[in-house]
Amino acid sequence: MSIRSFFFRCAATAACLTFLLGATTGCSVNPATGKRQLTLISEAQEIQMGKESHQQIKAQMGVYPDEELQRYVSDLGLKLAAASERPQLPWAFTVIDDPIVNAFALPGGFIYITRGILSHMNSEAELISVLGHEIGHVTGRHGVEQLSKQQLAQVGMIAGMIASPEFRQFGQLAQQGLGLMFLKFSRDHEREADDLGLRYLVRGGYDPTEMDNVFRTLGRVSAAQGAGRVPGWASTHPAPENRVARIEQAVAAMPPEAHRGEINRDLFLGKVDHLMYGADPRQGFFKDNVFYQPEMRFKLTFPAGWKTVNQRQAVAAISPEQDAIVVLQLAEQEDPTAASAKFFGQENIERGAQARNNFFNFRTRTEANAEGKKPPGLRGIAGFFAYGGQVFQLLGYCREDRWSNYDQAINRAAGTFETLNDPKYLNVRAARLETIELPRAMTLSEFDRRWPSTIELDELAIINGVTADQQLESGMLLKRVVGGELP
Ligand SMILES: [Zn+2]
To answer: Would the pLDDT of 304 be above 50?
Structure first.
């Protein structure tokens, strides 16, 4: 289930509740921003929504398995939130096991930062800037405001989604593939979160000039990734115009004592020493169109030239025209028979002849519209099998009228699931950060020659927040990246 559609459902529920209870809705004054705000969602509903999504996000994206690091981030976040205008919320701060550079906030005070963004920060004050910005989205009730707007606009759309659950299920996979996962804020909300973040940074006793570094680094990351390629920070936090200039002005206007705040660079770099860097190949990786899963010991060959997607709960390939998909996921049922029964038991799915081994053809039933026209349904194959103590579901499908184009490719892919035995693939390890203290002044290029990294110099410069030819002082701590090579 995608997070976005879950939000839609929450919104629908909240709207229904509001109508049923006849609760008063309208505007209230926000304690953090002092602005009047449209609020169809009460604080209790906001907290409830956040709590429900919290479990899903943790399951779907994965919690980074390092208790000490989790505690470090959580302690900092909780302290900051306690000094905010909404200290009563059930604040929770979680480091997500994801290499993408991102941070996000759910209504109710649930805040997530990826290990990807952590690996790009270079001081505690920078980390605090990110946490403060996300806290600002919560205290500013930006998520709630977005939901309230969507609620008014999308009643029709929600009704449509509820009417056809199986299409929702199919649609979500395609959506996930496109990375439409999070609520997107407006530029106004970003400006407000920047201002609130700066407020919390100063209240926390940190040096406000460090906030600039964060925006600079995030800007360099999006420039290097190319617009829209990866669903990261830039796709959910649109940069307001003159962001850096605005913050610099605000910082310059602060009294001199504000500039003597903490930075805690070395302390922070000590915390991220050995942090996992980049994609974790133990969670499966692609080489061309072949997917290798070393933990579960299998491989699967997807159709050549298709766009591949590797997510925690599914691995898939989408045809270049984006009109066909092959997707492998774990089934929730305990055995293949039950999983198959669940799938074919869906009202609008019709089981056809056996395709191969335990694969069956299927198509979805569609209903004629008012003009008597029947839109094309979906056609494909579905297989359910047990392997390594787990039950898998493998689906390949497309629009019914395109089946002749994809029949062969989909059936061929379905037959390629096999055991992975090659130790070269079984023993892959993720890359890690390593912190080094410079024994003398040097440039980053020299540092990279003396302590080589498994990433390019350009990327190394970004994660260290410096340029390649900048002179770096003796005694300074720098990050390098070791390991992570694929066979
Ligand atoms: Zn933001």
So the answer is: yes
